[in-house]
Amino acid sequence: MNPDNSRRLLIIGGRGALGSALIDHFKSEGYFVASVDRGQNSKSHFPISLEEVASATLEQQVHLVNEKLEKLAPLKFHGILCVAGGWAGGNVKDSNFLANVDLMWKQNMHSSLLAACIATNHLAEGGVLVLTGAYLALTPTPGMIAYGLAKAGVHHLVKSLASEESGLPEGTKIFGILPITLDTPNNRKCMPGADTGTWTPLNFIASLLQTWIENDPATPLSGSLVSLLTHDGNTTTQIN
Fold first, then answer.
1. Catalytic position from the list 32, 147, 175, 212
2. What is the DSSP string of the chain?
3. Which of 40, 65, 135, 179 is the least buried, fewest Cβ under 10 Å from its Cβ?
4. Residues 37-69 pLDDT 10s
Protein backbone atom coordinates (compact mmCIF):
# COMPACT_ATOMS: atom_id res chain seq x y z
CA MET A 1 0.00 0.00 0.00
CA ASN A 2 1.37 3.40 -0.97
CA PRO A 3 1.59 5.79 2.01
CA ASP A 4 -0.80 8.71 2.29
CA ASN A 5 1.21 11.91 2.85
CA SER A 6 -1.87 13.50 4.36
CA ARG A 7 -1.51 11.10 7.33
CA ARG A 8 2.01 11.15 8.75
CA LEU A 9 3.45 9.65 11.93
CA LEU A 10 6.81 9.70 13.68
CA ILE A 11 7.58 6.87 16.08
CA ILE A 12 10.34 7.28 18.67
CA GLY A 13 11.59 3.84 19.63
CA GLY A 14 10.73 2.26 16.30
CA ARG A 15 12.97 -0.78 16.72
CA GLY A 16 11.40 -2.00 19.97
CA ALA A 17 8.57 -4.51 20.11
CA LEU A 18 5.83 -1.90 20.51
CA GLY A 19 7.43 0.56 18.09
CA SER A 20 7.78 -2.11 15.43
CA ALA A 21 4.16 -3.19 15.93
CA LEU A 22 3.04 0.43 15.54
CA ILE A 23 4.97 0.76 12.30
CA ASP A 24 3.31 -2.38 10.92
CA HIS A 25 -0.15 -1.26 12.02
CA PHE A 26 -0.05 2.29 10.70
CA LYS A 27 1.60 1.28 7.43
CA SER A 28 -1.23 -1.20 6.91
CA GLU A 29 -3.65 1.70 7.49
CA GLY A 30 -1.95 3.75 4.76
CA TYR A 31 0.01 6.16 6.95
CA PHE A 32 3.44 7.52 6.06
CA VAL A 33 5.56 6.40 9.01
CA ALA A 34 9.00 7.70 10.01
CA SER A 35 10.95 6.23 12.92
CA VAL A 36 13.80 7.11 15.28
CA ASP A 37 15.87 4.67 17.33
CA ARG A 38 19.46 3.75 18.11
CA GLY A 39 19.44 1.78 14.88
CA GLN A 40 17.33 1.97 11.74
CA ASN A 41 14.06 0.13 11.35
CA SER A 42 13.95 -0.36 7.59
CA LYS A 43 10.24 -1.22 7.76
CA SER A 44 9.45 2.47 8.23
CA HIS A 45 9.27 4.83 5.26
CA PHE A 46 11.88 7.18 6.73
CA PRO A 47 14.14 5.53 9.33
CA ILE A 48 16.52 7.65 11.41
CA SER A 49 19.35 6.06 13.39
CA LEU A 50 20.89 7.62 16.49
CA GLU A 51 23.74 5.12 16.44
CA GLU A 52 26.33 7.69 15.38
CA VAL A 53 25.39 9.99 18.27
CA ALA A 54 24.45 7.34 20.86
CA SER A 55 27.06 8.65 23.31
CA ALA A 56 26.38 12.31 22.50
CA THR A 57 24.35 14.73 24.57
CA LEU A 58 20.57 14.82 24.33
CA GLU A 59 20.87 18.24 22.70
CA GLN A 60 23.08 16.78 19.96
CA GLN A 61 20.64 13.94 19.40
CA VAL A 62 17.73 16.37 19.03
CA HIS A 63 19.79 18.43 16.58
CA LEU A 64 20.52 15.35 14.46
CA VAL A 65 16.86 14.28 14.30
CA ASN A 66 15.73 17.81 13.47
CA GLU A 67 18.32 17.97 10.71
CA LYS A 68 17.20 14.66 9.22
CA LEU A 69 13.52 15.59 9.36
CA GLU A 70 14.16 18.84 7.50
CA LYS A 71 14.38 16.65 4.39
CA LEU A 72 10.62 16.12 4.72
CA ALA A 73 9.81 19.83 5.12
CA PRO A 74 7.37 21.51 4.78
CA LEU A 75 5.38 18.37 5.61
CA LYS A 76 4.71 17.89 9.32
CA PHE A 77 3.51 14.95 11.38
CA HIS A 78 -0.03 14.45 12.62
CA GLY A 79 1.24 12.27 15.44
CA ILE A 80 4.51 11.71 17.30
CA LEU A 81 4.45 8.54 19.39
CA CYS A 82 7.27 7.95 21.87
CA VAL A 83 7.35 4.30 22.92
CA ALA A 84 11.06 4.08 23.75
CA GLY A 85 11.99 3.11 27.30
CA GLY A 86 13.42 0.50 29.59
CA TRP A 87 13.10 -1.19 33.00
CA ALA A 88 15.43 -1.85 35.92
CA GLY A 89 14.69 -3.15 39.41
CA GLY A 90 16.37 -2.50 42.72
CA ASN A 91 16.12 -0.36 45.85
CA VAL A 92 18.35 2.40 47.13
CA LYS A 93 20.69 -0.06 48.88
CA ASP A 94 21.62 -1.93 45.71
CA SER A 95 25.20 -1.47 44.54
CA ASN A 96 24.07 -0.49 41.04
CA PHE A 97 21.28 1.83 42.20
CA LEU A 98 22.79 5.09 40.95
CA ALA A 99 23.86 3.52 37.67
CA ASN A 100 20.27 2.35 37.19
CA VAL A 101 18.93 5.82 37.96
CA ASP A 102 21.14 7.22 35.20
CA LEU A 103 20.14 4.43 32.79
CA MET A 104 16.40 4.75 33.46
CA TRP A 105 16.54 8.53 33.12
CA LYS A 106 18.23 8.22 29.73
CA GLN A 107 16.00 5.44 28.43
CA ASN A 108 12.69 6.88 29.61
CA MET A 109 13.04 10.62 30.16
CA HIS A 110 15.58 11.42 27.45
CA SER A 111 13.45 9.71 24.81
CA SER A 112 10.36 11.60 26.01
CA LEU A 113 12.22 14.91 26.03
CA LEU A 114 13.55 14.22 22.55
CA ALA A 115 9.99 13.61 21.34
CA ALA A 116 8.76 16.83 22.94
CA CYS A 117 11.58 18.92 21.45
CA ILE A 118 11.06 17.39 18.00
CA ALA A 119 7.34 18.15 18.27
CA THR A 120 8.00 21.89 18.58
CA ASN A 121 9.30 21.94 15.01
CA HIS A 122 7.74 18.96 13.28
CA LEU A 123 4.28 18.30 14.78
CA ALA A 124 1.38 19.85 12.90
CA GLU A 125 -1.00 22.18 14.71
CA GLY A 126 -3.73 20.09 16.33
CA GLY A 127 -1.49 17.02 16.22
CA VAL A 128 -1.10 14.29 18.84
CA LEU A 129 1.94 13.64 21.03
CA VAL A 130 2.03 10.41 23.05
CA LEU A 131 4.59 9.57 25.74
CA THR A 132 4.95 6.29 27.62
CA GLY A 133 4.69 6.30 31.39
CA ALA A 134 3.87 3.37 33.67
CA TYR A 135 0.85 2.38 35.76
CA LEU A 136 3.11 1.26 38.61
CA ALA A 137 4.67 4.73 38.82
CA LEU A 138 1.35 6.16 40.04
CA THR A 139 2.29 4.71 43.45
CA PRO A 140 5.59 4.15 45.30
CA THR A 141 7.97 1.66 43.68
CA PRO A 142 10.43 0.66 46.45
CA GLY A 143 11.62 -2.43 44.58
CA MET A 144 12.35 -0.51 41.37
CA ILE A 145 12.99 3.06 42.44
CA ALA A 146 15.02 4.13 39.39
CA TYR A 147 12.29 2.96 37.03
CA GLY A 148 9.48 4.55 39.03
CA LEU A 149 11.38 7.82 39.35
CA ALA A 150 11.91 8.11 35.60
CA LYS A 151 8.35 7.14 34.69
CA ALA A 152 6.90 9.57 37.25
CA GLY A 153 8.99 12.20 35.49
CA VAL A 154 7.32 11.28 32.22
CA HIS A 155 3.92 11.72 33.87
CA HIS A 156 4.91 15.19 35.03
CA LEU A 157 6.15 16.05 31.54
CA VAL A 158 2.79 15.05 30.04
CA LYS A 159 0.92 17.34 32.45
CA SER A 160 3.34 20.22 31.89
CA LEU A 161 3.23 19.95 28.10
CA ALA A 162 -0.57 19.96 28.19
CA SER A 163 -0.53 23.31 30.01
CA GLU A 164 -0.57 26.73 28.37
CA GLU A 165 2.71 28.18 27.14
CA SER A 166 4.43 24.78 27.03
CA GLY A 167 5.92 25.61 23.63
CA LEU A 168 4.11 22.91 21.65
CA PRO A 169 2.25 23.79 18.43
CA GLU A 170 -1.20 25.29 18.76
CA GLY A 171 -3.87 22.76 19.56
CA THR A 172 -1.50 19.89 20.37
CA LYS A 173 -3.18 17.04 22.22
CA ILE A 174 -0.80 15.15 24.50
CA PHE A 175 -1.39 11.87 26.30
CA GLY A 176 0.55 9.46 28.44
CA ILE A 177 -0.08 5.75 28.10
CA LEU A 178 0.50 3.78 31.30
CA PRO A 179 0.89 0.05 30.62
CA ILE A 180 1.70 -2.58 33.23
CA THR A 181 3.15 -5.47 31.20
CA LEU A 182 3.13 -5.64 27.41
CA ASP A 183 2.60 -8.92 25.60
CA THR A 184 5.90 -9.09 23.70
CA PRO A 185 8.01 -12.06 22.57
CA ASN A 186 10.80 -11.03 24.94
CA ASN A 187 8.49 -10.85 27.95
CA ARG A 188 7.11 -14.30 27.13
CA LYS A 189 10.66 -15.62 26.89
CA CYS A 190 11.79 -14.02 30.17
CA MET A 191 8.64 -14.86 32.15
CA PRO A 192 7.50 -18.27 30.88
CA GLY A 193 5.25 -19.02 33.86
CA ALA A 194 3.49 -15.66 34.04
CA ASP A 195 -0.24 -15.08 33.57
CA THR A 196 -0.24 -13.58 30.08
CA GLY A 197 -3.96 -12.87 30.43
CA THR A 198 -2.93 -9.74 32.33
CA TRP A 199 -0.55 -8.55 29.61
CA THR A 200 -1.67 -5.86 27.19
CA PRO A 201 -1.59 -6.85 23.49
CA LEU A 202 0.37 -4.53 21.21
CA ASN A 203 -2.43 -4.41 18.65
CA PHE A 204 -4.78 -2.97 21.30
CA ILE A 205 -2.39 -0.06 21.82
CA ALA A 206 -1.98 0.51 18.10
CA SER A 207 -5.74 0.66 17.55
CA LEU A 208 -6.22 2.93 20.57
CA LEU A 209 -3.59 5.42 19.40
CA GLN A 210 -5.12 5.48 15.93
CA THR A 211 -8.48 6.56 17.39
CA TRP A 212 -6.76 9.46 19.18
CA ILE A 213 -4.88 10.56 16.08
CA GLU A 214 -8.07 10.43 14.04
CA ASN A 215 -9.99 12.50 16.63
CA ASP A 216 -12.46 9.87 17.73
CA PRO A 217 -15.18 11.41 19.96
CA ALA A 218 -14.03 9.15 22.81
CA THR A 219 -10.51 10.64 22.77
CA PRO A 220 -9.61 11.76 26.32
CA LEU A 221 -8.74 15.33 27.28
CA SER A 222 -5.25 16.52 26.50
CA GLY A 223 -2.95 15.90 29.45
CA SER A 224 -4.63 12.62 30.39
CA LEU A 225 -2.61 9.74 31.78
CA VAL A 226 -4.33 6.66 30.40
CA SER A 227 -3.76 3.37 32.23
CA LEU A 228 -3.97 0.17 30.20
CA LEU A 229 -5.51 -2.52 32.42
CA THR A 230 -5.77 -6.10 31.16
CA HIS A 231 -7.64 -8.91 32.92
CA ASP A 232 -8.44 -12.33 31.43
CA GLY A 233 -7.18 -11.13 28.06
CA ASN A 234 -9.49 -8.09 27.97
CA THR A 235 -7.98 -4.61 28.07
CA THR A 236 -9.72 -1.48 29.33
CA THR A 237 -8.51 2.07 29.83
CA GLN A 238 -8.63 4.22 32.94
CA ILE A 239 -8.04 7.97 32.94
CA ASN A 240 -5.82 9.26 35.76
1. 147
2. ---EEEEEEEEETTTSHHHHHHHHHHHHTTEEEEEEESS--TTSSEEEE-GGGTTS-HHHHHHHHHHHHGGGTT--EEEEEE-------B-TTSTTHHHHHHHHIIIIIIHHHHHHHHHHHHEEEEEEEEEE--GGGGS--TTBHHHHHHHHHHHHHHHHHTSTTSSPPTT-EEEEEE-S-B--HHHHHH-TTS-GGGSBPHHHHHHHHHHHHTT-TTPPPTT-EEEEEEETTEEEEEE-
3. 40
4. 988 888 999 999 998 777 789 999 999 999 999
Task: Give residue limits of the domains in the chain.
Answer: 4-239
Is residue 31 part of the annotated active site? The answer reads no
Instruction: Give the pLDDT confidence of 139-163 residue by residue, as tens digits.
Output: 999 999 999 999 999 999 999 999 9
Indicate the fold that domain 4-239 takes in CATH.
Answer: Rossmann fold (3.40.50)
